[in-house]
Amino acid sequence: MSALISVIPIVLLIVLMMGFKVSGYKSAIVTLIVTILLALFAAPALGIIPEKYANASIFGITIWSVVEGLLKACFPIILIIICAIFSYNILCETKEIETIKTQFIQMTSDKGLLVLLLTWGLGGVLEGMAGFGTAVAIPAAILIGLGFKPMFSAVICLIANTVAVGFGAVGLPATTLANQVAESGTATSGELCEVATFIIIQLALMFFITPFLILMMTDRKKIMKNVTLALFVGTFSIIVQFCCAHFIGPETPAILGSVAAIIAMLIYNKLFIRDENPNDEVKVEKKTFGTVKTLKAWSVYGLIIFFILISSKIVPPINQLLGSTLVTQFELPVTGNAFKFGWLSNAGLMIFLGAIIGGLIQGMSFGSLMKLLAKTTINLQKTVVTICCLVAMAMLMNNAGMTNDIAKGLVALTGTLFPFFAPLIGSIGTFVTGSATNANILFGKLQATAAHDLGLVNQGTFFGVSGNETNWLAAANCAGSEGGKLLSPQSIAIATAACDMEGQDGDIMRKTMPFAIFWILMNGLMVFLGLHVF
C-alpha cells in the first residue's frame, strides 16, 4: 500500500502529459504540489520517512528538499541547457550554421547516414563530454535547420541519446554508481573498470538495434542497407567502448566510441554509398570551403569540445585545479544533504566560454552576444519552470522515503526474478530525476543490497567476462537508467525547447514510450541471462 501511494506522483505525471495532453510545465507544477501534500501527510502516516530524519520536522524536510531540488536544477542542469541553446543561436545569428549544415550534407548523399552521423555520432560525443541535454538539444536543432520536421528531430535525438548516457559527462553516472556500491564508499580503479565493462555488456544488443531503428525511422525503404550499416557502425562502437571501459574506466567509452562510430560511418560512406541517389528532402549545391571558413564555422563547437576536454578528468592537473577553485559547498538545514557546485569546473561554463569566444570569432560583438543570451534565457522560461519542479519533486520523493519505498516494493514483489526487473528501477530513477547520475545515487545502493539479500555476492562469469555478481546487478541500474531517459520529462523538456515544440511534451512521450519499454525489457533479459545462463 505504501509503495502504491508513493508512486502516485510518477503516475500522475504520466497521465497528465500523455492522457490529458497537459503541457510539461503545467504537469510538473501540479505534480510537485501533489508530491508536497503526500510528503506532508501521507509519508509520516505510512511510516516511510528515512530513519536519519526520524527527529526532524516533516515540514522542514519538505521545504528544504524543494530548496535542494531548485539548487540542483539551476546548477548545473538549467545552466547547461541555456548555454547549449545559446551556442546554437549564435550560429544561427552569424549564419555559420549554414556552413555546418552544408558540410554535413556533403559528407554523404544518404539521408539515413546523415541523420546517424548527427544523432549517434555527434550526439554521442556531446553526451560523453557534457551530458545534461546537450546531446539532444544541439543535434535536434541542427536537424531542424537541415529541413527535418521538429517532431522527427526531437524523437530521433532522444532515441539516439541512450547508449552513451551511462558514460555521459566524462563517465559521471558510471563512476557515481561504482562509488555507491563499493564497500569502502570509493571505488578502486579495478571496480570502476568492472562496473563500466558490465554496463557495456548489458547494452551490447542496443549498440546494433539503436542505429538500426534510427536508420529505419529515417528511411524505411533501404532495409538491407540499414541492417549492414547498423552492424558495421555498431561493431566499431562496441569494440572501442568495451576496450575503453575494460582497460581505462568509465571516463572515455562514450567519447571515443562515438568518434569511432563517426569514422566507421565515413568509411562506409566512402566504400558503399554512391552519389547517384542524393537526399530527397535535404538538397544543397556542392560548395568548397577553405580552411579558414571551416574553422570559423566550427569555432563555437570546436572550442566547446576543447574546453570540456581540457577541464575533464582526461587532463588531471587542470581538472583538479578547477575542481578545487571557487567551489560553493554547504550543508542544507534539516535534511543534512550537501550541495556542491564548482563555478569553474562545470560543463555549463565550458559551453559558455566556447560559445562566447566562438561568437566573437564569427563576428558578433560582446554586447550583441549578451542580448542574445538574455533572449535565449527568456525563451526557455517554461522549460526552466518544468525542470525546477521536476528536480524538486525528485529530491522530495527521495528525502521523504517515497522513492526508496517504490524500489523496495518492487523487490518484494519480484523475489528471485528481481534481476530481470533491476533495469526498471534505474529507469524509474531517471524518469523522476532526468539524470542517470541521480538515478544511480538513488538506487545504486539498493541494487547492491538486493543482490546481498538474494545471495548474489560471489565471483562469476558474465558472457565470458569475470566479475562480482553484486557489481553485475548494480550495473543494471545504470543500463536501465538509459531507457528511462526516453521518458524523462526533463529530457523531453530539453527536446521541446530545442525544437520549438512548446506544449507537445505528451506527444513526444507517446512516441518514445514503445522504444523505452523495449529497451527496459531487453536490458532485463540481458541481466537475467548473464546471471543464470551465460
Report mean pLDDT, rounded to a whole number. 88
Radius of gyration based on Cα positions = 22 Å
Q: Approximately how much helix is present in the residues?
A: over 70%
By secondary-structure content and strand pairing, the structural class works out as mainly alpha
* Helix-strand string: HHHHHHHHHHHHHHHHEEHHHHHHEEHHH
Large-scale geometry:
globular
Low-confidence stretches: none
Instruction: Give the tally of β-strands.
Output: 4
The total count of helices amounts to 25
Q: Largest sheet at a glance?
A: 2 strands, antiparallel
Main attributes of the structure:
534 residues; mainly alpha; two-stranded antiparallel ribbon; 4 strands
Task: Describe the protein.
- By secondary structure, the protein is mainly alpha-helical.
- The chain contains 25 helices and 4 strands.
- The protein has a two-stranded antiparallel sheet with strand order 1-2.
- The model has no long low-confidence stretch (mean pLDDT 88).
